[in-house]
Write a structure and sequence with these properties.
This protein is of the alpha+beta class and 117 residues long. The protein has a single domain (4-116), classed as Beta-Lactamase, CATH 3.30.450. Helices cover 39% and strands 29% of the residues. The chain has helices at residues 4-12, 40-45, 47-60, 99-108, 110-116, and strands spanning 17-24, 29-34, 68-73, 76-82, 87-93. A 5-stranded antiparallel beta sheet has the order 2-1-5-4-3, with helices on both faces. A hairpin with a 4-residue loop joins strand 4 (76-82) and strand 5 (87-93).
């Protein structure tokens, strides 16, 4: 059976993926891999406010709990996927990533990924 480390490595190895980080909702890294220029602990610490805002928006709009948030930024994408009440997956990708396929894979494998956390 694959481990959380195997999962992070598999995501990070995809072309165009700069970072793959599994973190607690408190912003602490459980496991992660990133390009050398990226500091996973620093990046993960910025995720909880995004989660809180997305959850509040979902409840205010009666759309429910966060499943996946996609942020398109000037030089790439940040994808935050809820895995469990305790953990989330953050994927940073550059504009060259096959975005549709990446989102599909994350959505299709969400339960399998969550089982590893």
């Amino acid at each position: 059976m694959p481990t959380i480390r195997d999962l992070v490595a598999a995501i990070r190895e995809r072309e165009g993926v700069q970072a793959a980080v599994v973190l607690g909702r408190d912003g602490l890294v459980i496991d992660g891999q990133a390009l050398p220029a990226l500091e996973t602990d620093n990046i993960a610490a910025h995720v909880p406010p995004v989660l809180l805002a997305a959850e509040e928006l979902g409840h205010a709009s009666q759309q429910g709990s966060l499943q996946t948030a996609v942020l398109e930024q000037e030089r790439g994408y940040a994808i935050v996927a809820s895995l469990s009440p305790e953990a989330v997956l953050l994927v940073l990708a550059d504009p060259s990533v096959n975005f549709a396929q990446l989102l599909y894979e994350l959505r299709r494998n969400r339960a399998n990924i969550a089982a590893l956390v």
